[in-house]
């Protein structure tokens, strides 16, 4: 009997495309599910040192909700690198103008802070409306 642990190889990893409809769902709940899919934690072949996750298309990001008082109190900060050039944007303005960017920032915070995480975030495709440009990949609908 062979008692060795099987280590998955890059050639054995199979990547799929999934569509998530974010309409009416909280931003954090959608972000955790997207991060899980991007990392590949839903697969039995999950490995921490390899990018074995899938591609994720999120539609209707403009219809996501924030619970509690986050719409008024949550602030997104960005610094350009120059002295005194920190810009602050409230969640209300961010969700109105750049709801896809708000989702990307939430997911990015849940991924590893290294080159592996940077390659994972490139597999996220977020769209404000219900239409997306990746129909050629034949994505499956992911319900959670």
Strands, count: 6
Rounded to an integer in angstroms, the radius of gyration calculated over CA atoms is: 17 Å
At the fourth level of CATH, the homologous superfamily of the domain at 15-66 and 100-141 is: Ribosomal protein L13
What do the pLDDT scores average to?
95
Return the CATH class of the domain at 15-66 and 100-141: Alpha Beta
State the CATH architecture of the domain at 15-66 and 100-141: Alpha-Beta Complex
Describe the largest sheet: 4 strands, parallel
Low-confidence stretches: none
Helical fraction equals 25-40%
What is the succession of H and E elements? EHEHEEHHHEE
Number of helices: 5
- Strand order across the largest sheet: 5-2-1-6
Commentary on this structure:
The chain is of the alpha/beta class. The chain has a domain of 94 residues: Ribosomal protein L13 (Ribosomal Protein L13p, Chain: A), CATH 3.90.1180.10. Strands 5-2-1-6 form a four-stranded parallel sheet, covered by helices on one side. Strand 3 and strand 4 form a beta hairpin. Helix 1 packs across helix 4 and helix 3 crosses helix 4. The longest helix has 13 residues.
């Amino acid at each position: 009997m062979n008692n060795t642990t099987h280590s998955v190889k890059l050639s054995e990893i199979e990547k799929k495309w999934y569509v998530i409809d974010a309409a009416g769902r909280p931003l954090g709940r959608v972000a955790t599910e997207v991060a899980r899919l991007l990392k590949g934690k839903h697969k039995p072949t999950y490995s921490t040192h390899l990018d074995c996750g899938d591609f994720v298309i999120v539609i209707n990001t403009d219809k996501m909700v924030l619970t509690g008082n986050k719409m008024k109190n949550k602030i997104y900060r960005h610094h350009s690198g120059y002295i005194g050039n920190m810009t602050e944007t409230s969640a209300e303005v961010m969700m109105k103008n750049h709801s896809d960017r708000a989702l990307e920032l939430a997911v990015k915070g849940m991924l590893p802070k290294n080159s592996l995480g940077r390659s994972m975030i490139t597999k996220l495709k977020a769209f404000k409306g219900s239409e997306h440009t990746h129909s050629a990949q034949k994505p499956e609908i992911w319900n959670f």
